[in-house]
Design goal:
TIM Barrel; alpha/beta; three-stranded antiparallel sheet; single chain; 15% strand; 441 residues; 16 strands; 25% helix
Length: 441
């Protein structure tokens, strides 16, 4: 079944918060879509066939960015990018084999994890609760998934191990030598902003650098003021797991963190376009520069430990439906607000899975602009097949599989995709309602 967005939201939510929940709802699509709602299971795609663009709808907090007075023709950042990190790839021990087709590497993705299921799934605002059920998994569920993925012989790899562009911008496959008997897998997590609308609803509040140099979460339990520091989300949980099982990340790579920009990044209200002088938010952040500095510190620590960053667009826009002007303006904002914190990236993860093309290879003004803006790897969403990819002259495009309430429910109803990686029934949190997802039709 194709996910739908939550029906209602509290009118007291700020504009940014309301749009954030709508954006979250559109981040996953359990199969290809033509834009019309599906009334039945989405058919699987054969290898070599691409999911078409999702039909989700998005809006940035400032409306249609194509009408903004902000210059949209130049994607260049206006600030100095974050410095390079000291990440050093590792070499697998023992015998290796070359993966036969780097366009066919599975890719699982998640959203921020639910720490307190009773609160998140039991909100009086049933629209928000349904959204959390649809698009989130809990810490307990993620830990079970992580263990089973490892037990089933998968190892973490980076998209940058799959292909490389030459000086002319042409993409070439690179030999991917995985440990013998193992299978490569890419992990990613979307919307790592700890949006304002999530506060007090059972989620972490931010990422921080702990005294030992590791990246951990800050978490404040609902109804409490105590700030706890620990592993409450994908990144620190994967870090801890790899520390115990280093063979799970034989190259040192952990995963890809996809960031929007309008609500800041990594739990910090770091967006000048929103929270700075003349920004779009209905409130300013007097600690803007401090938040930018702290977010940069966290980003550098994440990169040093094997994490990478991807653009998820600044305003969580729908690339299928957005005009070229809006895409240009949004890209300029991402590079202005986010790139100085994360450093440059050539990874683009489409919000809503809303790709700029269906089955045909990329061509035309949108692709020409995005390629010119520096993007070489593109990721849509398709939960109906274990892996899908497409080589283009200047790019590698791959599909991601959503792991969330919708895909778990589909798995229990007969879809076999997730069972390639873990046993869906066995990972369900006992605190997840029997409905599993929030979608009822």
């Amino acid at each position: 079944m194709r996910p739908r967005q939550p029906r209602t939201m509290l009118t007291s939510l700020s504009l940014a918060a309301a749009l954030a929940l709508g954006a979250l709802a559109g981040c996953t699509d359990s199969g290809p879509s033509t834009g019309a709602a599906s009334s039945g299971p989405v058919p699987s795609l054969s290898a070599g066939a691409s999911p078409s663009a999702s039909g989700g709808v998005s809006a940035s907090p400032s409306g249609d960015a194509s009408s903004s007075s902000e210059p949209g023709s130049s994607p260049s950042a206006s600030a100095t990018p974050a410095p390079a990190t000291d990440f050093k790839p590792t070499v697998p021990a023992g015998a290796t084999t070359v993966w036969p087709d780097n366009s066919m590497v599975p890719h699982l993705f998640f959203h921020s994890l639910v720490v307190d299921p009773k609160t998140a799934f039991g909100l009086k605002n049933r629209g928000k609760a349904a959204g959390y059920l649809d698009y989130m998994v809990t810490v307990d569920e993620f830990n079970k998934v992580l263990q089973q993925v490892y037990d089933n012989g998968y190892v973490l790899v980076s998209p940058h191990q799959l292909g490389k562009v030459d000086a002319k911008g042409v993409m070439h496959p690179t030999p991917l030598k995985v440990p013998k008997g193992k299978k490569p897998l890419v992990f990613s997590i979307d919307d790592v902003s700890y949006y304002e609308y999530m506060e007090g609803e059972g989620f972490p509040t931010k990422l921080v650098v702990a005294p030992d140099g590791s990246v951990q979460n800050e978490y404040v339990a609902p109804g409490s003021t105590e700030k706890k520091i620990g592993a409450y989300d994908v990144m620190p949980l994967v870090d801890a797991f790899v520390k115990e099982h280093p063979d799970f990340a034989p190259f040192g790579h952990k995963g890809v963190i996809a960031l929007t920009g309008y609500n800041g990044v990594l739990g910090y209200r770091s967006s000048p376009s929103m929270y700075g002088p003349g920004g779009d938010a209905d409130h300013k952040n007097p600690n803007l520069q401090t938040d930018i500095a702290e977010a940069t510190k966290v980003a550098n620590a994440l990169k040093a430990s094997g994490w990478e960053f991807a653009s998820h667009s600044w305003g969580h826009i729908n690339f299928t439906k957005s005009s070229l002007g809006r895409i240009k303006t949004d890209t300029a904002r991402w590079k202005k607000d986010v790139e100085p914190i994360t450093g440059p990236t050539d990874l683009l993860i489409y919000p809503f899975g809303a790709d700029i093309s269906g089955l045909p290879k990329y061509a035309g003004p949108k692709y020409d602009f995005l390629k010119g803006a520096g993007y070489n790897f593109y990721f849509n969403v398709d939960g109906s097949t274990p892996q899908w990819g497409q080589w283009g002259k200047g790019y590698l495009r791959e599909a991601r599989i959503n792991v969330d309430g919708i895909s778990l429910k589909a798995a229990l109803e007969g879809r076999k995709v997730l069972s390639h990686f873990f046993d869906p029934k066995s990972v369900l949190d006992p605190l997840r309602p029997r409905s599993i997802s929030g979608t009822t039709s």
